[in-house]
Amino acid sequence: MKNSILNIAAVIVLVFSANFVQANTIKTATTSIEIADSSQLQSVYDAYFTVKDALIKSDAKLTSAKATDLLTAISAIKMDKLKSNEHTVWMKVVKKLTADAKSISTSTDIKKQRETFKSLSKNTYDLIKVSKSDVAVYKQYCPMADADWLSKEKAVKNPYYGSSMLTCGNVVETIK
C-alpha cells in the first residue's frame, strides 16, 4: 500500500513537472516569435535611417549603396509574420517603398535621391506609425524642402540640404 501511494505521488510529480516544462517551452517559443515579428520591420527602419544618414553627408554613392541595403531589407519581409494592422499598411506601401528604394539605389544624382526620399519617408512614416520602432522615432520637417523625414535622434540633421542647411527643420512628432 505504501509503495502504491509513493508510485502515485511520483507519477503526479512527473506529470506536473512535464506540464510545467511544456508550458515554459511554449512561452519561450511564443516570445521568440514575437521578437522576430517586431524585428522584421525594424530591419527596414534601420536601413531607412542609413539612407537618411548618407543623404545628410550629401554622398550620392553611399546613398545609393544604402538604398540597395534597404531594398534587401524590404524583400526579406515575410508578410505572413506581420501583425494584422502592420500587414494592412505594408500592403499599401510596399510597392512604393520598393520603387523609391530602387530609384534611389540606381541614381547618382543627389538631388533626385533627395526628391525620392520625400516619398520614401512618407511611406516609412505610415508603416512605423502602426508598428512602432524599438526606440523613439522623431518625425522632423523642413519648411525649405516642404518635406518630412524620420530620425532616431531629436537633434535635427536635415537630409534634404546636408551641410548647407544641416539644422534647418524641427521635430513635429515623437513616435513611441
Characterization of the model:
It is a single chain. The chain is mainly alpha-helical and 176 residues long. Helices cover 66% and strands 10% of the residues. It is built from four helices and three strands; from the N terminus they run ααααβββ. A three-stranded antiparallel sheet has the order 2-1-3, with helices on one face. This is DUF3347 domain-containing protein. InterPro entries: DUF3347.
Number of strands: 3
CATH classification, class level: Mainly Alpha
Are there runs of 5+ residues with pLDDT below 50, and where? 28-37
- Gross geometry: elongated
- Domain count: 1
Secondary-structure arrangement, i.e. CATH architecture:
Up-down Bundle
Task: State the secondary-structure class.
Answer: mainly alpha
Radius of gyration equals 24 Å
Helicity, in percent? 55-70%
Distance between the termini: 63 Å
Order of strands side by side in the largest beta sheet?
2-1-3
Q: What are the secondary-structure elements, in order, as H or E? A: HHHHEEE
